[in-house]
Amino acid sequence: MWQELGIALCLVLVLEGILPFLYPRHWRGAVMQAARLPDRRLRLMGLASMLLGSALLYLLH
């Protein structure tokens, strides 16, 4: 199980690094916009992301 968790975390790092590598200016602007969002909006976006990821993982597994 620990090996699979490590693989998953490595894939997250690879996927999150694609946009800053390919489009650094646009990525920086998106991060700056996200920094101005209220905490409630960020929490809802995080929750939606976790639920979507969990649902997709359940469907694929």
Explain this structure.
The chain is built from three helices and no strands. The chain has helices at residues 2-22, 24-35, 39-60. α1 (2-22) crosses α2 (24-35). The longest helix has 22 residues, at 39-60. The chain is flat, with a radius of gyration of 14 Å. By secondary structure, the protein is mainly α. It has one domain (2-60).
Helix content: over 70%
Q: H/E order of the elements? A: HHH
Query: Can you tell me the residue ranges where pLDDT is under 50 for at least 5 consecutive residues?
Result: none
Proportion of residues in β-strands: under 5%
Helix-strand layout with pairing:
Layout: H1 2-22, H2 24-35, H3 39-60
Helix pairs in contact: 1-2
Pfam families: DUF2065
Keywords: Membrane, Transmembrane, Transmembrane helix
Protein name: DUF2065 domain-containing protein
Short description:
Pfam families: DUF2065. The chain is mostly helical and 61 residues long.
Main attributes of the structure:
3 helices; 61 residues; 0% strand
